[in-house]
Amino acid sequence: MVNLELYRVFYYTAKAGSISKAAQELHMAQPSASLAIKQLEDSLHTNLFHRTPRGVSLTSEGSTLFAYIEQAYELIMSAESKLDEVAKMGGGEVRIAASISVIQYVLLPHMERFHREYPTIEIKVVHGSTLGCLKLLKEGKIDFCIVRLPIEDESLMTTSLLSIQDCFVAGEKYKHLSEAPVSMKELAEYPLVVFPPHMTSRQAMNRLMASYGVTFEPKYEIGSLQLLIGFAQANLGISYVVREFVTKELDEGSLFEVKLKEQIPRIEFGIVRMKQLAIPVAAQQFIDQMLAEGSVKEEN
User: Fold this and answer.
1) CATH number attached to the domain at 4-88
2) 166-265 and 4-88 share a CATH fold
3) Topology of domain 166-265, per CATH?
């Protein structure tokens, strides 16, 4: 059986370069520390230290062992720290970035529940485009962001959060488009209200139309979901939106979903974080809560 206490004494001795200093740090007698080192060397059948009047230094075998023990010990210390953070969850913060619509329809319900359970943890939210959110993430200004997937970046880790459906919606003037299917080519002849070209939802729409060989000139380019909804309700055009974000308007009859002959593929929204950086316990708890509870707010 592995005697972890022997490795603990070995670790401190290697770090201090002295058995007596290691014994002081470990609050044990020097003879006990020397015996622990001797027992470890005997069990491994090798000398781990060169002994000199000025202290000790690692042998080649000792250096090899220390490379592994150091990693293991630091992992143990990190685990203890994380457990301490969990126990203390009475402080700290969670830093998130997302678009305004994602904040409204995805984050808010979870923020409410998380705040109810952990009232002393501060939740900081920043809104921005996908590129803006990723920039904040790489600058270390947020713990994670929620954006459309896929994200092609080797330095980032993504976790799928929810599947959504893009669609075209219209007001009363164009209600007939919800009754009989139309083609993308036919739809392109109507006034279209879409997000600006730099936004990922617009880029998704561009790819969709191009995949069916359709070109279009939008009537309006607007960077706000609420305005896209408003323009459609005001009969100013056909808006391209996320169906899950306009369920209230569809249910109450102020918007109508356009029936298309072609299929619009579902897309994923996901949690994006830095691959090589440990995420704070509070932020991980928030993520776990979202994944466990589901993510789209239902409008009644």
Assistant:
1) 1.10.10.10
2) no
3) D-Maltodextrin-Binding Protein; domain 2 (3.40.190)
pLDDT digits (tens, 9 = 90+) for 127-157: 999 999 999 999 999 999 999 999 999 999 9
What is the identity of the amino acid at 275?
A: K
The CA-atom distances, in angstroms, between 45 and each of 34, 48, 52, 83, 87 are: 16, 9, 21, 36, 42
Sketch the domain layout of the chain as residue ranges: 4-88, 93-160+271-293, 166-265
Residue type, 73: Y
Question: Count of H helices and E strands in the chain?
Answer: 12, 12
Residues with pLDDT less than 50, the chain: 297-300
CATH second-level architecture of 93-160+271-293? 3-Layer(aba) Sandwich (3.40)
Query: Among candidates 236, 279, 275, which has minimal Cα distance to 255?
Result: 236
pLDDT digits (tens, 9 = 90+) for 3-38: 889 999 999 999 999 999 999 999 999 999 999 999
Question: At which residue do the structure tokens 């592995």 appear?
Answer: 2
Please state whether the predicted TM-score (pTM) of the whole model is above 0.90. no
